UniProtKB/TrEMBL annotation:
It holds the Pfam family Pro-kuma_activ. The keyword Calcium applies. This is Subtilisin-like protein. GO terms for molecular function: metal ion binding; serine-type endopeptidase activity; tripeptidyl-peptidase activity. It comes from Lactarius akahatsu. GO terms for biological process: proteolysis. Its main location: secreted. It is found in: Secreted, Extracellular space. Keywords: Calcium, Hydrolase, Metal-binding, Protease, Serine protease, Zymogen. InterPro entries: Peptidase_S8/S53_dom_sf, S53_propep, Sedolisin_dom, Tripeptidyl-peptidase_I. SUPFAM superfamilies: Protease propeptides/inhibitors, Subtilisin-like.
Amino acid sequence: MGPEAEAPAPLTLVLSASVLELARPLVTPHNPCNHALLLALCALSLSPHVASLTGLATPLPQPWHDLSVKHAWNAVPDTWECLGPPPPGITIHLHIALQPKEENVLMEALYEVSTPGRPQYGKHLSKEEVAKLVEPHPDTLELVHSWLAHHGVHSSSISTSHDGGWLTVMDVPVPQDNELLGASYQLYRLAGTNDTAILRTVGYALPKILHAHVKTVAPTTFFASARTLQLTPHSHSESARAAGAPEKAASRGPASVLSSRDEDTTPEELRRLYNTYTYKPTALTKNVIRVLGYGNEFPSPTDLNMFISVFQPDSDLDEVTFTVEMYMQAIAYPIPHIFYSIGGKPRWSLVDHQPVMAHLVPKEKIPQTMSVSYAVNEKDIPAEYAWSVCDIFMQLGARGVSILFSSGDDGVGAGNCQDASGRVQFISKFPATCAYVTSVGGTKSIHEVGAELSGGGFSNYFERPAYQNVVVPAFLQSLGSQYDGI
């Protein structure tokens, strides 16, 4: 192998401030994959709009050439590596989130049906009522369809969601994606793994006329690896050792039960702690609990049968169509449970809640409760994308669905309070930062206090919802200036 070529000097690209405020090194010897961002921005610089600002050409009248950056990262996000361009013939399904014709009407309706004491409390909306509140303006649909047609997208390849809020463009070739979005799609993979590669771009743009009509386009700059809230693993022998727990737990109080068990937490102990030991679920034909698992994760029928035989021996597993998380099945039986395994082999690092939740929105029958033990760093996803997904949670909430998300494992005391630059900063976790889900954190000890490692619900993307104004200001005041700026 010959001598290494001298590393090129960092390049800096400066575009008109009306198009992009960016003047920083884009390509360095340590970040060669940033060529993808440079290529995308160069594509923007060649648009007639930008050329006219630099005196290189006369602007064309079509609004589709007046591109402006919608979202771009300064570099390939942490923990991801660029593998280069995809092979020829690869296509993408593009998902386009549209602005509703009326802002905040769904949020107001959600508060009406969710706030005790209000006349509409408990009168959840139908899917048709929700769809009416979030439908886009006809002008929005006309503009977006015209833009797609201008770039050769046939109407037969475009489908519309039940509420009209999302368009899906099927099988778009990567070169056409790059032209549509001023992008440079590359293959990326979670560094140090053999996980499935994904197609992403580190920046994309839209015609300026569409910015007020389009909330986000996916998949584009969404990079987020899965973080799961996991129980401390126990061996089969430990599970077997816990077999006597139901009888012992039934005859003791919470303090006695928990203090005598340093490692295992059994369903019986949880029932005793929360005083639900004698509760029997009712309305079994109306209630369903769904659990989501990503990355080829699924319950083991063998482990589930062993667990249930110990902690819920009266459960008839032959009547359960799908296997489910062991603790939920043991505690909530006989409420029906359904487990969704999303992703596949090889291991799937990316956790994207949008397709799953959007799949549920048009369903006539939806679960009353959903549990998802996955969180991603809020800073690793575009704000516009987080807002769009949170809006889907709001739609499900208006229909009466309670969605439970883990708060994440990087709380104040977890030792991971740093942003990508090393600055001390609390790391918020999405979707727990969305106001329309229930964020569930960890607890510890007999008298149950919050675990330091557990994340919280504060956000750098979302404003504080009105319903939290009753308690949050007093809490922040009690902290003083201890955590200002982080």
